[in-house]
Recover the amino acids of this structure.
């Protein structure tokens, strides 16, 4: 239909393989590297073991090598790579890009990821707090506008909250927003390093749950600990079931307190530990959120599982790179219909 004077509009559609972005998630347990196309689809995925206590220059070189490898192995022309989005646990310095003293990644103390990785790879680098990247990744893949006002509880080796308000991620003035580890969720819970008892972070840490469930032998890393909890819950071990029920209640209380503050009413749960525990925790969390007397919500709080999955922080970091490309030069990513 022609609605007025002027050249008829040309219809364009996105060419997904016109450009690519790399996403990296620096995590205490496993580093994830993904390549996404312009549609946000993951076209390559790699996991690399963290390098422990190597010097910072070596860590950066290892990440640069992983970026080179995944792009090369996927057969992608390097000229089509827009850049690298890096998701990492904070805190960052106020100008962004530099990791200060991440408690979960001690080897990354004072490393300028943005500048140093950019210098080695020759690619633009964006650095984002992992929980914010996770929120962005989820918004990209959610076709609706439901997540315009939402929060993403990221449950990995640590716990944090990604926040979206009015369709945009909330970063705060120094990109460090989302710290919810010290919300008290269980007055009788374990002691926290901050001096309080029952803070969310310490209360749902895999090794806390393991200790509370009465295991004497460590199972290995946090993934092995969590897998043992899930296995024993499936077998009906009463102590494990009780511990997991309580973990679900603790998570629910944190979500209700955060929702009272933010009034978003849409909750996404994700992250590598959540992905493993969702099957045994999701029902408890949803039921307790709905019935928590502390809630001031005037409509039901929707609780959903991440549709992106365990890679969500890496995928979200890559999507941030795509966002920048769309804003700058959208026409180059389009083909005429
Ligand atoms: Zn605390």
């Amino acid at each position: 239909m022609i609605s007025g004077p002027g050249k008829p509009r040309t219809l364009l559609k996105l060419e997904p393989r016109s450009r690519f972005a790399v996403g990296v998630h620096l995590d205490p347990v496993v580093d994830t590297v993904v390549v996404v196309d312009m549609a946000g689809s993951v076209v390559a995925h790699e996991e690399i073991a963290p390098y422990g206590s190597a010097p910072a220059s070596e860590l950066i070189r290892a990440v640069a090598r992983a970026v080179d490898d995944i792009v090369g192995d996927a057969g992608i022309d390097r000229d089509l790579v827009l850049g690298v989005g890096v998701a990492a646990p904070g805190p960052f310095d106020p100008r962004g890009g530099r990791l200060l003293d991440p408690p979960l990644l001690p080897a990354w103390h004072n490393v300028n990821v943005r500048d140093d990785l950019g210098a080695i790879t020759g690619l633009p680098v964006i650095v984002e707090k992992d929980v914010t990247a996770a929120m962005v990744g989820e918004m990209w893949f959610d076709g609706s506008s439901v997540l315009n006002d939402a929060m993403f509880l990221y449950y990995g080796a640590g716990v944090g909250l990604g926040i979206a308000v009015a369709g945009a991620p909330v970063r705060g003035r120094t990109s460090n927003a989302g710290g919810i580890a010290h919300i008290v969720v269980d007055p009788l819970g374990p002691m926290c390093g901050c001096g309080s008892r029952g803070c969310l972070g310490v209360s749902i840490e895999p090794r806390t749950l393991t200790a509370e469930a009465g295991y004497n032998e460590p199972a290995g890393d946090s993934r092995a600990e969590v897998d043992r909890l899930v296995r024993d819950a499936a077998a009906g071990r009463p102590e494990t079931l009780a511990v997991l029920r309580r973990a679900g209640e603790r998570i629910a209380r944190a979500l209700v307190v955060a929702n009272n503050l933010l009034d978003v009413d849409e909750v996404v749960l994700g992250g590598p530990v959540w992905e493993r525990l969702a099957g045994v925790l999701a029902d408890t969390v949803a039921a307790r959120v709905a019935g928590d007397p502390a809630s001031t919500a005037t409509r039901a709080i929707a609780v959903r599982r991440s549709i992106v999955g365990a890679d969500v922080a890496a995928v979200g970091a890559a999507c941030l790179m795509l966002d920048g490309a769309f804003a700058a030069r959208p026409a180059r990513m389009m083909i005429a219909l």
